Amino acid sequence: MATTSDHELSIDANSLLSELDKGLRSNRMGEECEAIVRFPWLFTRYPFPILINSACLKLAEVFRNGSNFSRLLILKVIQESDKHLDKILNVDEFVRRIFSVTYSNDPIARAITLRTLGSISVIVAERKNIHHSIRNALESQDEVEVIAAIEASAAFAKRSVDFAINIYPKVMTMLSQQSTPTDTKINLLQVLHHSHYNTSTAIEVRQRLIQYLSTSFSEKFVCAILNTLTYISFSSLIQIPQQIQLLLSHFNEDRRKKVKISALRELRLLAKNTHVWTKDNVKSLLECVDRCPKDDSLLSGIMSILMELVKCPCLLAGEIDYLNEFETKIVSFCINVICNDYRNILLLSVCLCILTELSLHSTKILKETVKTVEKFINSSMQITESMLAKNTSEYKVICKCIVTLCNRDENEVVEPLKKCLKKVLLSEISSQWMGFVCETLCAIQNDSGDVQFVNELNAKVKKCCEDECSEDSLTKLFTLYFQTCNRLEIECSQDFLNYLNGKSHWFCYRLIRQAMRYGHHHVAHLLCEKLLSTASSENIHFWILSVSKACKAESYLKIGLSDKELEQRIIDATSLYVESLSALKAGVTPSNPLIFTYEYSKLRFKLLHTHILLRQACKLVRTSPAPAIASSAALSSRDDLMKCGVIVTQMRKCAKEFRSLADGYSDFYQTSFNADNDTLAHLQLLQHSCTIFAEAIESVFQSNRLSGLFVNKDTHLESNRLDLSLLTPPEHKKLINVCHRISRIVREELSTLSGDSVIGANQITTLLSMSRELLSIPLCTPRLFFQSVQATCIKLAISPQPKSQEFIITSCNTNFALKVEGVVVNGGQGCKVIRKVAKVILTVTTCLVTKSGNSDQLTKPINDGNVQLMSLVVPHNDYFQEQFLLPLLPTGVYMINVEASIIDENEAQWKTGPNVSISIKVVEDSTLK
């Protein structure tokens, strides 16, 4: 892939296309090739039909008149840009220019053309002239052209039913000929993969291939036929039990190892259709376990098939007795492997996966599995670095199985596993295995506050730092330590800095992230102070400074402070958050706008400020008693609570502030489309806490409120039962517990105290204690504060566009036609996709800014002439378009705003933007005057 220069990033699409067109017209081969390879980037950045159509026509012209090397590069461009091919508007002209090369006398040129036609088969699947050309090319005497024709045949057969049905007799004829080379026969089988469109055709092809299977002696050809037969059965859902028996017979009877491995690979594919496996199929597979030669890879392959089978609950649904016998045999075999064969890690990991799947539905199997895994964990002290380097993926699978077992509901059953893991961690083990064990313990839902284990971990951390352990393993060990202990003391935090002397800056930054994730902000603040003087750029310096100020602010809020000290600490924390937000603005770059980080910090600042207002309002019960006219004011307003004076109005304002904060977190949640699930759960918890506290205030200071309280709803946070899911992250559990306690206090205590018309000290004390309890919970910074796992956004293009920043002028007697095009950009390589864009809502709003006429009307906003239109579009290959017809009746200047929002695959709506605006000037039609 060609690199992109800063100059290309700054220019628009038409200018860039003009530059590439100059390169295509150049007489120098190098400039022409450089222009060709830059087209995929152009399509990715500007994936709009007009541009893609124009660019593809230019490429097709070069393909017709250029060299074979240029044609090969254009073929690569088309293959990389396959999802944009359906945006070509002039398909006939595009195909005509490419297809003309099929009449060339050069077989290499014809071969490249056939491969190109196969690559664009998605838009020309039913072109009969191309079908005819491919059939003729299959009879060519040139081997390269034949291979290209086979590749094109497979591509067209995949998308055209007529071509697939008509071409298969020709393919079968070529397979039956002795003169056809074996490699060509293997390539021809790719065409037969798509004979499943017609049941009779699929059955006929299957019978012919089975005949070839019995007469063929080529190892590669046999494996290819088995793959084709499996593909046909899997796609058409015909004769799957017969295909399973065929594969098992080849596994048992054919002595060639490659054939056996191929048969196992196809069986595992068929195992995904577990519901069609019969009792005979399963019985034959179990017999293969006994017959299997002493080959670890083959035995592991059989067990991986069994693993796919046991995942499905509908396996042998009508054979309950045999299913119990089947599970008993599998369990005994797996336990025997795990207990007696520690060296075969691949087989051991598969067996442990099988036991884990079976234990999810049976407590008896769970107990046996736990005892077996306990033996493995105790023996894992002998695992060396070389063993881990060779089988890293297998050990990760084993750790995932242990996590699944430990997160079961049966705590008394799985508790020995946790003890074994802690014992192994504190013993002498290899550095990399220590990292695996730490990851496993972090994934297990541990209860923090185990003082003995925390002290032992502290000693382990110190020893590993002294022994120069790898930084990756040390990071995982520190993460476990942060997760396990409640809150580090200042002295302990200072010890960590002494441990980290000589460590890299990146390692310290990773520790900052983990410390903030579990609420140890004092440690994070000290580490940030250490990194401030080593920042490599100004933006990074301001970013570290912002994090340092935020951590220092959060470290002020801790348990054990008096009310006066806590109030002063909150004030100091808000001042530090102001400094943090200022530094955060200075650290923003175009490539890293820090939108989530800034909004999250701003909401946290508002939350602390609201708690200050609450505490100041609570003091009014002592400093500002009710005036003498309070009774008459309460009588006139028909609100008995107004007898208590100004505290009522101030506390109601605090309740509104908390509700405003809850709405702010709700809106923030809806804009965080790229957030991971834990971050979204964290935002939802903060929203719940603000809503609950607002209702706590209103239950005392609002007499005429509705009875449908949020805290009265039967949810896992507000009801009398506290249901902490095993999937709940450990850093969220403290806040969940506090929200549950506050909800219970509102229902059981404040609701009874609020029956009096006089506000007493009990209600104020209860509210202050609730505020203290919420503030004492350490803020566990979510992942999106530092890192975005997903990077999906929407880009919009609106036409027409004004020239030179002027108005678009239109007539008042015609509706304005607005075309909106957009593309879903999913980020670069390495970005995960947590949630997908299923639909896009386009909202077009027109606003009459100024109205033509008197000069005094030009500065006044006008309410008439406003229109709002919405449209729901479904992106196709990440592209969508829609057209709107806007009635702009009064003459004047309009502002048209286009906003996009996302609907994901779960029908949840996300207000992600973007917002694009253009100005329209509506004038009178001169012909009507």
TrEMBL record:
It holds the Pfam family INTS7_N. Coiled coil: none annotated. One of its GO terms (cellular component) is integrator complex. GO terms for biological process: snRNA 3'-end processing. It comes from the Eukaryota. Residues 795-910 form the Integrator complex subunit 7 C-terminal domain. It is found in: Cytoplasm; Nucleus. Residues 17-520 form the Integrator complex subunit 7 N-terminal domain. PANTHER family: C1ORF73 PROTEIN, INTEGRATOR COMPLEX SUBUNIT 7. This is Integrator complex subunit 7. It comes from Dinothrombium tinctorium.
